[in-house]
Amino acid sequence: MTGLRRALLVIAAAALALGLAGIPVVLSSNHNDDAVPQLMATLVIGWSFVGTGIYAWWRRPGNSIGTLMTLTGFFWLLFAFNASNSPGLFIIGMALPVIAFGFLVHLLLSFPDGRLSGRLERSVVITTYLLVTVVQWITVVFGDTQDPSLCGPECPANPLLIAGYETVFNVAVSATALIVVAVIAGLLVALRRRWKRWAPATRNAYTPVLWTGAAVLVLQSALLVADVLGASDGMITVVFSAVLFPLAAIPYAYLAGVLRTRLSQADAVGELITSLSRGGDHQRDLVEMMSGALGDPALDIAFWVPELEGYVDSQGIPVEVPANPRRWTAVQHDGRPIAVLLHGAPLEDGGDSARRLAAAAALNLENERLEAELRSRVRELRASRRRLVEAGDAERTRVERNLHDGAQQRLVALALSLRLARSKVEEDPARAAGLLDEATGELEEATRELRELARGIHPAILTDRGLEPALEALASRAAIPVYIDSNLESRLPAGTEAAAYYVVAEALTNVARHAGAGRADVTVGLNGGDLEVTVRDDGQGGADPEGSGLRGLADRVGAADGTLLVADRPGGGTEVQARIPVAP
Amino acid sequence: MRVVVADDSVLMREGIVHILVDAGFDVVAQAGDAEDLMRKVRAHKPDVAVVDVRMPPTHTDEGLKAAREIRAEMPDIGVLVLSQYVEETYARELLTDNASGVGYLLKDRVSDVTALTDALRRVASGGSALDPEVVSQILGRRRVDDPLEALTAREREVLGLVAEGRSNSAIAKDLVISERAVEKHVTGIFGKLDLPPSGDDHRRILAVLAFLQG
After folding, report:
1. Is B88 part of the contact surface with chain A (CB cutoff 8 Å)?
2. What is the ipTM of this complex?
């Protein structure tokens, strides 16, 4: 920020210098009568705008309000130079200061967050800028400053003048007046729309700024119209003076708004703290209190769940944080995220008030967060449980089908062969012998299939010999080379061994089915009170943790109270690690 | 040849006894659990004992333990272990340091009288018998840089039969080639796999298994 501070100090010094430079110019003017009052007005307004603008800029560097106010002030200070006797400075003082109104319109229409929204606002601002630059310069180039209707014979000659285009000049002036009226009308409509979108708190603080600004611009356009219609000089001076007062008031109205916001925030925080300590203990109350304090009826809160690395609402259902950063404020406590406030109306003040409130309510938010985390976990458990049961049912269906289509068929065929053999045994013993051989073959096949099926359901070697031999058996039947590395010295409880075995079995199935790997390595060992089982392959990697294969694995590991980690290996391939607490 | 049969399933036991008697063996005793088996074997001193792996009380591996006990106590008695499951691990345990007079067959194999009697005779005479399905599983295990890739198809066949514990003459008869051809193959195999040549059938089965199980 020191860079910004230095820059702002330089700008302040420049504004001071510019203002001071105008003093000798005005005092030595030979064509300006009410020089001194005019000078006062110029300096007061100019320096007020620059000063407030610098403050707003420093307070909210990202918000263009500060810059716009400063620019308004700077250009306004150039007014002093239309008292100059030198044609160059004089024409500057005639042509440039009106650009201040451009910045003022932009300022009003992007108040208070510094952003324009919608086609109307943008067109009004662009038209105004064009008006105060291009159209103004047309009049500057074709206007004879020494004509009494403009300045007068004592004024310096217009160095840019292209003589003989009085009609163009008159047309330009009239056109300006018309466009100004249209612009002002558009401005008022846009301001009203903007105001309606403001949250109540913003309205409380900053409505005066809008009113004063609108008043200035309406009066200024009245001035232009009056001039075109040929009002007297005296009339013009009166109206112009009338413009100056609300104009000078704008920066102070802004400051008042800032102060008001601060006070009401302090109020709201104080009220919130009192209400919270009084003990309203449901999440609805908390949201109501905070939305009341922020003046945002559509406020909602979502809570951080570390397991999901995301936010959930009070029922534990995941919530997505909106992309627009002005619609949410993150709340932290002890460096950890707790919750996020979701705003109904986009933040106007950079989220200060929201953050202060959140800090005051941090402990309550943490409580709510714990509840929400719990509910989220319950939801996940329910879903996991359902998936496990479904997987079990699917498995049973598979077994039933295997039995039906496989062994059962063979046994039926076997029965037929035997019956046929029996019927042929006397009349055609050779044929009978052949049938009996067939029957023996079918029987052997059926036995083999049943054996395989039983092994798939639960391998006897797992119960008889334990995890490592069962894993070796898996490895020897695998379609790719599988290497088992185990440092287990004794057997573990049956439940733990079974969980680990099925995790590896399913992981290896996944590898065979998806990974396109050349080999897989399985590591088994005890780590603390947990059994750690890792399956690594050198396939294509990129496994999707939400895919049905890995999710089934996660469910199974979760059911054993364990955790599952899936990661891509640096050299390619996937690593799946399960940690299963050893059942007592 | 005198045999003792041990299996806790009466149906199975009777079936095995029937087949053996039919094939000309002398079944001198039957047992229903490991303790009973040891008693009967000590009493009758058969040539070979046929033992089911799973028996009371725990129905896990009593048969294996009994087999080891018999081999340790009475090395002249061969033991043929029958199991319902094909698992490398059991084969390894059974044949740990001494494959002589030990066999491991799938129970299904019992219905193949030739295979059964062949195995019994081998085991009784101090050789070894490993079920072909166990062997094919061991051979079939995938490996990175599979050393078996260096072997020809015929050599793999021969290797499988060596791993079953067959003698050269038995292999020759099975593959319908000369015994000399078998010897050449075996030398070739052992050379390619960089194994020291060993004479006895039951020693070479150990070498091969040790090699295959890495």
Report:
1. yes
2. 0.77
B111 with A443: Cβ contact below 8 A: yes
Which residues does chain B have within 8 Å of residue A463's beta carbon, measured at their own beta carbons? 60
Tokens of residue A276, six digits:
């919270």
3-state secondary structure B112-154: CHHHHHHHHHHHHCCCEEECHHHHHHHHHCCCCCCHHHHCCHH
In a domain, B53, yes or no: yes
Instruction: Say if residues A83 and A32 touch (Cβ distance below 8 Å).
Output: yes
CB atoms A476 and B138 under 8 Å: yes
For residue B176, count CB atoms less than 10 angstroms from its CB and return exposed for 0-12, middle for 13-18, buried for 19 or more: exposed
Q: Which domain holds residue B182?
A: 141-212
Protein fold of A384-457:
1.20.5
Tens of pLDDT, residues A390-427: 888 888 898 888 888 888 888 888 888 899 899 988 99
Amino acid at B214: G
Phi, psi of B195 (to 5 degrees): -105, 145
pLDDT digits (tens, 9 = 90+) for B160-187: 888 888 888 888 988 888 989 888 888 8
Which of 507-546 (A) contact B at CB < 8 A? 518-519
Of B60, B88, B144, the CB nearest to A473: B88
Instruction: State residue A501's pLDDT score.
Output: 93
Contact A512, A539 (CB under 8 A): no
The answer to whether residues B117 and B30 belong to one domain is: yes
Nearest-by-CA chain A residue for B60? A464
- Name the one residue in this structure whose structure tokens are 């088994």: A524
CATH code (residue B123): 3.40.50.2300
On whether the CB atoms of residues B22 and B3 are closer than 8 A, the answer is no
Measured CA to CA, the distance from residue A282 to residue A280 in angstroms comes to 6
- A484 CA: distance to closest CA in chain B (Å): 12
Report the pLDDT averaged over residues A247-259.
87
Q: Kindly report, residue by residue over A448-501, the tens digit of the pLDDT.
A: 888 888 888 888 888 888 999 899 888 888 888 999 999 998 999 988 899 899
Q: Is the CB of residue B214 less than 8 Å away from at least one CB of chain A?
A: no
CA-to-CA dists, residue A200 to A212, A259, A296, B49, angstroms: 19, 16, 8, 97
pLDDT, tens only, A99-135: 999 999 999 998 877 888 888 889 999 999 998 888 7
Which among B107, B131, B155 is the end of a domain?
B131
Residue bearing the bigger pLDDT, A525 or A260: A525
Q: B200 and B103 in one domain?
A: no
